[in-house]
């Protein structure tokens, strides 16, 4: 084994053994930058005031509901007037409304 290989092996051994100290000790390899992995969910106990959470929830619900209802209305109007088959643009708009409807439903029930 060459000297460069033994130095690399010493570096990896120091990292794996807790890096007590020495020439090749780099503490940045040992600490995760995600605090939820190191300390559990202690940092997330207080995530804002209750009124702030209520306001955000209400706004989120209104936007998601408007997205679902608006896209259902567009799809209903295009389908009921039978204009989907009359032009490529109407077919395209129907497919956009369908994609947005599915996305809005995922956002509505996701988190």
UniProtKB/TrEMBL annotation:
Q: Which PROSITE patterns match?
A: G_PROTEIN_RECEP_F1_2 (PS50262)
**Gene Ontology CC terms:** membrane
What Gene3D superfamilies does the database record attribute to this sequence?
Rhodopsin 7-helix transmembrane proteins (1.20.1070.10)
Q: Where in the cell is it found?
A: Membrane
Keywords linked to the UniProt accession:
Membrane, Receptor, Transmembrane, Transmembrane helix
Q: Where are the transmembrane segments?
A: 58-79, 91-110
UniProt cross-references to InterPro entries, sorted A to Z: GPCR_Rhodpsn, GPCR_Rhodpsn_7TM
Entry superkingdom = Eukaryota
Annotated G-protein coupled receptors family 1 profile domain ranges read: 70-111
Its Gene Ontology molecular function terms?
A: G protein-coupled receptor activity
UniProt protein name: Relaxin-3 receptor 1
Q: What is the lineage of its organism?
A: Eukaryota, Metazoa, Chordata, Craniata, Vertebrata
């Amino acid at each position: 084994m060459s000297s460069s290989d033994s130095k690399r092996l010493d570096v990896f051994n120091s990292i794996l053994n807790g890096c007590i100290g020495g020439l090749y000790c780099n503490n940045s390899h040992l600490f995760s930058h995600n605090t939820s992995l190191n300390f559990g969910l202690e940092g997330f106990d207080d995530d804002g005031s209750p009124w702030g959470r209520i306001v955000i929830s209400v706004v989120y619900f209104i936007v998601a509901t408007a997205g679902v209802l608006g896209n259902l209305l567009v799809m209903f109007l295009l389908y009921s007037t039978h204009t989907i088959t009359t032009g490529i643009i109407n077919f395209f708009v129907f497919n956009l409304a369908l994609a947005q409807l599915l996305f809005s439903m995922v956002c509505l029930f996701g988190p």
